[in-house]
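Zinc finger CGNR domain-containing protein: structure, please.
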Amino acid sequence: MALGMATVAYELRFDAGRISLDLLATTHPEERLDSTEVLCAWIVGSGLVPDGTDLTHADPSWLVGFRELRGRIGQLVRGAPGQGPGHGYDLALAHVNDVARAAPPAPRAVRDEGGSLVRELDGPPGCAALLGAIARDAVGLLTDPVARAAIRECEGDNCPIVYLDTSRGRRRRWCSSEVCGNRERVARHRRRAALSRT
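Here you go.
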């Protein structure tokens, strides 16, 4: 895992189909963003910043900002606009819209050792810029009727992960075929085996 951490790779997932949904996945099965080191690994792994970007200036306030945005996005993705202010939907929407105003980190193209052009940031990114990029993704997701209609919640037991179903026929059932899908197939096999023994 990036930054020399002892974090197991499966703890950070990037398979929800959108960066804002990948951020939601950092709560399952337990809090994943429990240190600035893990948060920085998530920032790099999500593609918000290129590998090698200096994030040593990240501090615990970044955790607060990322967790708060994650909670607000979760309210919006799982809620319905007609719920009204009593359910917090409008407050969550106002927060995401406010965060989305921040300019995202400025990229630039530079040559690597082999002469190929690679993406680099113009300077160390600030927390507000990174949060702004995620909030803009959430705004795009929530305002695109096709994308919004493709939002699904995993059918796996006790799995709250939300993902974008881009499969042919829109029949994807699990956040991950390798994780929840495999668990379901194993459980189904065990049920059949138990029935055949009786």
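Notes: The chain has a mean pLDDT of 88.
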